[in-house]
């Protein structure tokens, strides 16, 4: 393509709302434009790379036995009401009404629709297993759409769904999809890790997330250096680092802590370590309220609480008025002493003494509180997140903490959707059973952002060759005369050789052309200038390093094309 005929509106300014480098570069390189919060136009360059990722995903899904379908974006509310997710998804769903007053949603995901589809078509175990997938837009009204394509409200996802007669078959396809995802992400040149993951709103009993490692990632993952155990921080298990000395129980005292609300504020006011402070949370459950206690220096792992209690009604009370009605205290003075409800404490509190808890009286805390004597604990369980210093729960190895961008997630769903929607099959023993399901999502547009997050420098994007919008950019420093004539010849010859090229035939300064070429990140630059022509050479420059190579024009264009082709293979390494 000739730049003069293309639509590549590069920009010098970065958008004021862009926090991430990938977002900034995509706007500056003329790949995307914002329409509204979390909603984007894709320009030709953005579209081209998106299609390349899509192609990799499609090839790998087909190779792993997937059958491509297309499901509707507009989905009837009724199906969602039957699985209970109309309420569970809550405000994250875009909801709409048709002219007859019927309710619909813009699909945030497609488990309901697909279960309803196969319900009518799959009759017998003989038709199983079945793996269906689509590459389609998803709609989620995210609380904080940000980071450009990474957390948008309209985004492209590949979602796949598998159907099985038994658990064994589900496990087999799940492993298959795990490998498929590793291949996709490797081909996308992402540095990633697969981690054990919470199942959240999808449900089911086993899940893995695929995390592209990046400091800008919103997720935290924990990996064992020794045995390879890796999990999302929300659910990572561990051997606790702490060991506390035996202490004598001191006398309980109520002290004024005016205006001190957070654990750190209270700790520094009372001149004690923050680990001595206990944070108290109130949760609603099916059978009433419970209090949950952890140390001031720890983070609560709500997913673990969900896993242990297995109570669908479990929800943190984050309305201060309600907490005040239940306990008489605001969040800052909330504590377990005198509470009339079951209390669960983190495992790390089991043998510790003399801690500080909220006084359930505005502006007061108790010092030297002790379990047994002052507070009765119903259960001690591990409900905190792992922290630096903790060890691997499998091999006691060292745990490292890293940040990641969740680019994909796979789930063993079981029968949650088939039971709710009546998707049954006739098993080999003649009994009617609900289909066993798996689902597998990969964020195609998020991958686009993640690749740039991992492949850029201060000048712009550095595309891996398989994903680049063009393989080669030809830059005649002047868009006239002999330089353009040589450029045109090389352009035609490379095009005939099937190489995807951009010819920068714009009447711009050499500075602007170099600047834009680096911003766009095309793997190989072919530079034709006055000086080089004087010596009958052109210059090749890889985007990924500073090495330059002179190629003689004396042996004819065919030889030049051969040299360029050789150089392209080096950019692929
Ligand atoms: P997150 O935790 O980041 O909100 P999720 O766990 O809700 O994501 P899934 O339901 O697992 O997302 O969807 C599958 C994939 O779709 C994710 O792994 C991610 O790559 C992509 N994805 C999810 N939400 C968004 C979004 N708002 N914008 C872009 N991609 C998204
Ligand atoms: Mg997910």
Q: Determine the N-to-C terminus distance.
A: 25 Å
Number of strand segments: 33
Mean pLDDT: 94
Rg from C-alpha positions? 29 Å
Shape: globular
Query: Based on helices, strands and strand pairing, what is the structural class?
Result: alpha+beta
Oligomer: single chain
The share of residues in extended strands comes to: 25-35%
Descriptors for this entry?
29% strand; 5-stranded mixed beta sheet; binds magnesium ion; binds adenosine-5'-triphosphate; 9-stranded mixed beta sheet; alpha+beta; 15 helices; 33 strands; 573 residues
Structure commentary:
The chain is 28% helix and 29% strand. The chain has 15 helices and 33 strands. Helix 1 packs across helix 11, helix 2 runs antiparallel to helix 6 and helix 2 packs across helix 11. The longest helix has 21 residues. It starts with 20 loop residues before the first helix and ends with a helix. The site of magnesium ion (MG) has 3 residues, from strand 23. Adenosine-5'-triphosphate binds next to strand 8, strand 23, strand 26 and helix 11.
Which SSEs are present, and which pair or pack?
Elements: H1 21-28, E1 32-36, E2 39-42, H2 44-63, E3 67-68, E4 74-76, H3 77-83, H4 85-89, E5 94-97, E6 103-106, H5 111-121, E7 130-139, E8 154-164, H6 167-187, E9 192-196, E10 206-213, E11 219-224, E12 230-232, E13 238-239, E14 253-256, H7 263-270, E15 278-285, E16 288-295, H8 302-309, E17 315-316, H9 320-327, E18 343-346, E19 355-358, E20 364-369, E21 379-381, E22 391-392, E23 399-414, H10 416-421, E24 424-426, E25 432-434, E26 436-443, H11 444-454, E27 456-457, E28 460-461, E29 472-476, H12 481-496, E30 501-503, H13 510-520, E31 524-528, H14 530-534, E32 537-542, E33 548-552, H15 557-572
Parallel strand pairs: 3-7, 16-18, 18-21, 29-30, 29-31
Antiparallel strand pairs: 1-2, 4-6, 5-6, 7-8, 8-26, 9-10, 10-23, 11-12, 11-23, 13-22, 14-20, 15-16, 15-17, 19-20, 23-26, 24-25, 27-28, 31-32, 32-33
This protein binds adenosine-5'-triphosphate and magnesium ion.
Residues 209, 406, 409 line the site of magnesium ion.
